[in-house]
Amino acid sequence: KISSPLQGRVVEVRAKLGDRVEAGATLLVIDSSDITAAYSEFVKEASEMEYSTRAQELAKELYATKALALKDLKQAENDLIKARAEFRRAKERLLSLRIPAQELEKPLAQQRITSRFEMKSPLTGTVVERAVTPGQSVGSDAGQVLFTVADLDRLQVVADVYERDLALVKVSQVGRINVEAYPGTDFAS
User: Fold this and answer.
1) Quick count: other Cβ atoms within 10 Å of Cβ 72?
2) DSSP assignment of 125-139, as one string?
3) Cα 146 from chain centroid?
4) How do residues 112-142 score in pLDDT, each as one tens digit?
5) What's the rounded Cα separation, in Å, for the pair 45 and 58?
6) Per-residue pLDDT tens for 42-93?
7) Pairing between strand 116-120 and 145-150?
8) CA 80 to CA 28: how far, in whole Å?
9) How many CB atoms are located within 10 Å of the residue 15 CB?
10) How far apart are CA 23 and CA 123, in angstroms?
């Protein structure tokens, strides 16, 4: 069962009911303002950290030449610690929205982060349920299942056996199963 990790509007659905999907295949694309806001915060905090780093280095140089009080040097160091913490928080927020870490390691000018989020299948299997359409708003509620992907290569069969027939069933016994979806076809187990 696959739910969206963030809020947004579905702009594209790439998987249909019955499609075979590989692990990592894109199921749908969401346009999310969550990503835009988180990235804006990340850029702001990166700038603040860069400014605080330069201010602390300058304060260190000025203190070494006795042109700055120790109190001001300590304030610059404290500001840098706060800026680093805020930057880490902003980066963790983007990572929680599944922005690739390698993209965030690039210099800001080279980062290609958009408001579009590609939701991918966590496993290889068949789409057995699809409850989403283009244009639909989705939330980050785990109860809102958008897709169900199942591995149908191996299935478990649950059977009701009458008490009087229990002696006829043995562990590891081979059986034949037929289902309404495939009339006239027997499946060996």
Assistant:
1) 13
2) EEEEEE---TT-EE-
3) 14
4) 888 888 899 999 999 999 999 999 999 877 7
5) 20
6) 999 999 999 999 999 999 999 999 999 999 999 999 999 999 999 999 999 9
7) unpaired
8) 40
9) 22
10) 4
DSSP H or E segment with residue 81: helix 70-96
| Location of structure tokens 């034949």 | 176
Output DSSP code: residue 104: H
The secondary element (H helix, E strand) that includes residue 61 is helix 33-64
Residue 63, exposed/middle/buried by CB under 10 A (0-12, 13-18, 19+)? middle
Q: Is 28 helix (H, G, I), strand (E, B) or coil?
A: strand
Which residues touch 106 (CB under 8 Å, ≥6 apart)?
none
- Here the tokens at position 183 are 């009339």
Residue identified by tokens 């160091």 is: 77
pLDDT digits (tens, 9 = 90+) for 157-179: 788 889 998 888 888 888 888 88
What's the CA gap between 173 and 157, in Å, rounded? Answer: 13
